[in-house]
Every structure is written in structure tokens, then in C-alpha cells.
Amino acid sequence: GLFDVLLTGLMSHTTSALDPFAASLDHKIFLLEKQVKQQVQSLARQKQDWQLNHDVVETINQQQLDCRYLDIGGVPFHTRQAVLQRDQDHLLKLLTSTLFRTETDKQGSHFVDRDPTWFPLVLAYLREASPVLPRTPQARAALWREARYYGLEGLCGLLGQRRLLVIVGGTVMAADSPSVLGTTALFDPMTGTWRDGAALPSPRESFGTCVGDGQLWIVGGVGPSSCDRPLAWSTCTVQGYDPWTDGGSALRNPHQPHF
């Protein structure tokens, strides 16, 4: 009986002494498992990044094999065959296809005797189908001529559809009396949005308008009454407004004020 009591006490003392060691060992195992899990996740991310970079490099390598060289008016341009084959049949598509035998210069470029200024926008259209188009009528007309030469009907359509609705001046009722405006508002049907334009040099109504050289011309009209002018007055000014640059220009005034 005494031996059993001593043995039980010894085992209890040994177990109590081992408890802190076991707890410490469990904690170390937990930390080690956590570190291993983090390492595995890090390696998985590195593998994913490597695969993405590998795919990008492979795509670029394929583009080298697919590269076409163009000489537009003496300026070199490089792009992919796949880009030039987009859109409906056009000159660049036929020039770089295998349907016809086409000659190249000593550098292996296809020479096209056209203005290189607008060719980056031509390539942008073939790459994206919705390039940022120039705003001024002169630039748009120049790009339209290039698009027509290359046979890019889609780009010609984009340039032709670019129109703005312009509302200038006029009269509104304010406090039971008419108020003559000098404001300008523009509506873009392609985006469905309104924006404010530059104000007229002076408010006016009952004026004549016409469109010429990419500008809206405002001829004559009637201005508002004021303390200095108790009666409405007519003007003989001719003011031009360019909605693309939001600027204006004036012509020589007619001999007589009119509205």
C-alpha cells in the first residue's frame, strides 16, 4: 500500500513537471505550422506572379513575330499584323496581307506617301476602335481625309457623327419680366451630356445665325434694357463661336444694326 502511494505521488509530480514543457512544445508546433502556411501562400503568390509575367513575355514574343513595318510619309511605324487586319477591308489590311504580292523597301517597310501627322490616330482606331478624336474642325477634317484614303469607313463614320447642339442667348421669364441671356450651352449627342460654353460678349436675343468654317456665327440681335439704356437696343456685331475650342472671333460689323 505504501509503495502504491509513493508511485502515485511520483507520477503526479512528474506529470505536473511535464505540463509546462508540453504546452510550450504545442505552442512551438502551432507557430511552426503558421509559418509553413504563410510560406506556402507566399510561394503560391510568387508562382501566380511568375505565370502572369511569363504570359506577358510570351505575348510580346509573339508580337515580335507578328510585327509589320510601315513607312508613312518618311516616318516609320511598327504595329502587329493582327491590328492591321481589323475592321473591314481597307488599304493597310490589303497591303500587309498575303492576298497580293507587295513590295517593301530595303528596311522591309511598306511605304505609303501620306501625311504621318494623323497616322497615330489611324492606328489608335485600329487598336481600340474608339480613339480620342481631335476637337477642332480643321484637325477632324484632316483626319477624315486620311481615313477616307485608307478606306476606314468606321473611322470616317466616327468623325462624321461628331456633332454638337449649341444654344446661345435668348430670353427667359424672370420675376414676371423677360430677361435677355448671354449664356452658351452645348449638348453632345454621343455622350448625352450638357456643358456650359463661353458666354457671349453681351446678352442678346432675336439674332440671326449661320454655320460656316466650323463656327456658329451670331449676327445682330437685340440687347436688354438697362439704366443707361431704358429701351432695348439692337446691335450690329457679328460674333463667331467655335464649340470645339470654346473660343470666339469677331467679323467686321455690318453697316446698320439689325435683328
Automatic annotation (TrEMBL):
Listed A to Z, the keywords are: Kelch repeat, Repeat
Reply yes or no: does the keyword DNA-binding apply.
Answer: no
An example GO biological process term is: protein homooligomerization
**Pfam families found in the cross-reference section:** BTB_2
Location of the Potassium channel tetramerisation-type BTB domain: 70-155
Domain of life the protein comes from: Eukaryota
Q: What protein name applies here? A: Potassium channel tetramerisation-type BTB domain-containing protein
